[in-house]
Design goal:
96 residues; rod-shaped; 64% helix; mainly alpha
Length: 96
């Protein structure tokens, strides 16, 4: 902020004060506009706030799709493990 100049009359002082207020309002308006533009680019709250590119996929997925994909992969691995256990038990002659 600039120094307060010396004034000859009350009218000069008031004019200077109103000019300072006017400049401050313009600056605040510009800053508010810039912030509103930035905030408008934020995604809405929820699963779409975070995107992740799942390997072997071309598009980005939100959190719901990501967790569904991870759950499916884990379930497939568990199914394969169970199948391999069953086969190994049959080879070793263990019945369960």
């Amino acid at each position: 902020m600039s120094e307060t100049p010396k004034f000859e009359t009350l009218e000069e002082y008031c004019n200077w004060g109103f000019e300072q207020l006017s400049q401050a309002l313009v600056q605040l308006t510009n800053r508010t506009t810039a912030l509103e533009q930035a905030v408008s680019k934020f995604p809405p709250p929820g699963a779409d706030m975070i995107k992740y590119k799942i390997p072997e996929r071309e598009d980005y997925s939100n959190l719901v799709d990501l967790f569904d994909n991870l759950y499916d992969r884990i379930r497939n691995l568990e199914d394969e493990r169970d199948c391999l256990k069953t086969r190994l038990n049959k080879i070793e002659g263990i019945d369960h």
